[in-house]
Every structure is written in C-alpha cells, then in structure tokens.
Amino acid sequence: MRIDLHAHSTASDGTDTPAELVRHAAGAGLDVVALTDHDTVGGHAEALAALPAGLTLVTGAELSCRLDGVGLHMLAYLFDPLEPELSRERELVRDDRTPRAQAMVGKLQGLGVDVTWQQVARIAGEGSVGRPHIATALVELGVVRTVSDAFTPDWLADGGRAYAEKHELDPFEAIRLVKAAGGVTVFAHPAAVKRGRCVPESVIAELAAAGLDGIEVDHMDHDSGTRARLRGLAAELGLLTTGSSDYHGSRKTCRLGEYTTDPEVYGEITRRATGAFPVPGAGGNER
Q1: DSSP secondary structure letters along 237-252
Q2: Is-contact 81 41, C-beta < 8 A?
Q3: Are 127 and 10 a contacting pair, CB within 8 Å?
C-alpha cells in the first residue's frame, strides 16, 4: 500500500480542487490519501463525492498552533467534524486569517512591495487565505523566485519583517480537543528549521505525555539526519512515525506520494480513531 497522509486543496492553500486532488492521488498510484487543509474541513464533501474506486480518503485537518512564540502545525485525523468545541476553535482560527493576511499585505506595502489585497484575494479564491497565497503574490511580482523563498526573515517567516500574528491553538489544547472529537494527532514536520524556529525535543516529549499520537518524520523539509534523529526520538517516546508529501499542487515542488506512511502505522491510526473512519472510493463523480 502507498499511503500519503498530508495533502492540501483549494479549500485552504493548495492549487488542486478537492476533486482534482483525489483524482491526482489515484493517478499517482496512491492507495490512501489524507485531505488535511489548514483549519478547515470544507473540502471533504467534494473529495468524497469525486473519490475514485481503489483510493481511500482519510479526512483530517492541519491545525494552526503556537507555543511560547513558536508556530507549529498539528495534523488531526478522523475526528468528528461536527464536534462543537473543536469546530468552534477551527472557526476562530479561520476568522482571523483574513485580517491577519490584510495586515501582512500592509506590512509588505510599507516595505515598498507593490502587492495589493485584491491580488492576494484573487490567488486565495474560495480557500482559507494564508501565507502561501501572499507568497504566491510575491512570486508573481518577481520579489522572490519561489513560494519557499518568501518564508524567510526578510519576508513571511515567523517574526519576519512582514509577519503578523493570528489566533492559534495551544498544541496541548489541540490534542485534547482532537481526542475529545475521536481523532488522532500527529505533529507535522516538527523539525522543519527552514520554516523558522522549532520547538525543542523536550516539548515533543511533553506533547507525547499529553496524548500526542505521532510525529511526521519523512517530509521534504527534513534531511536524512533529521529523519534518523526523529525516528529515534519517536521510538523513545512511543510515538507513531508517518511520512507524507505535504502536497500543495503547483504551489510547492513536492509530489503526491513523495513520502509515504508504513501500512502498519496507518492501521494503528485507524484503530485509534473513533470520530470518523476512512472512506473507500466507489467510483466518484468523474466531472
């Protein structure tokens, strides 16, 4: 089985619609794909309606968290999307995305960048607006070469010149909320230092003690030494280890299935989940 547990659609900051995402996942030879848009489950219904035969969809979300000034992302799988407390927190994060993005546009304008809110809104479309949309605007304007190049202290990285804060969850609270909704939690790209500051391994140990299920080890932002170190840490803490593409369509260079999760780990994730269950495709809508 080929299993990719981290992918984004136009419901947040990917460039594939949810329907296109599942079709591309099947075309890439995946058996299982997780749709984990930022702080939203808005793409799930479309993905399920278009799910091709032979592909299983894991529903999820990537939750924006912050601890002691450091941003981190929590992948939440197979939770009940209607559970009210978690739904309310996701809504608070989503509602703060637009004013935060507008503030970042204002900071960029103050730095002499000819970016407009209308440009960013066009790029975001119906999706939940975020830094990758602003980064894409910077690419369009020729300010940076790639989206990744915008995530530096000069521009959009945490604490960068054009950075602005938004409402984010405490990661310990995120774990509690996801567990209460019957879901499973995996710390996304925990050592992606190129994105900015990362929490120390002592915090990962504290999160594990609080109920964290796993960490994303095999990821494009982790080099081989980092992956080996994280695998050892996971074994020490009794955490599951996953591998994922963190696919964003054409917005990033990663490919669906570039990194994958061991089937036994996937099986354990599904065994732990009680809020929702993976959905096997039955042909989908071929439009």
Answers
A1: HT-EEEE---BBTBTS
A2: yes
A3: yes
